[in-house]
Amino acid sequence: MNGRKKGIRSRMMLLVGSLVLGVFLLVALVFQVLMSSYMEKSATQALSVSRQDILQDRREDRPPKMDRPPTGRAEMVLVSRDYGIESPWAEHGLDQRGEEQAAFVQGLEEQLAVLGTGGVRKMETGNSLYYFTSVERQEIPGTYVVFFINMSDLYSLQQTILMFLGVAMLGALLAGTAIAWGIASRIAGPIRHLMDSAVRMGEGVYEPITEEFQDLELDRLKQAMNESMIKLETYDTEQRTFFQNVSHELRTPLQIIKSNAEGIEYGILEGAKAAAVVREETDRLGGLVEDILYLARLEGNSNDMVYKRNDLREILSYTVERYGPILRKKGIQVEYDFQEDPVWYLCEERSMERAFQNLLSNAVRHTRDRIRISCRRMEERILVAVEDNGPGIQDAELPHIFERFYKGAGGKHGLGLSIVKAIVQSHGGRVEVSTGPGGTVFTILFQGEEAC
Question: HAMP domain location, by residue (predicted)?
Answer without folding.
Answer: 185-237
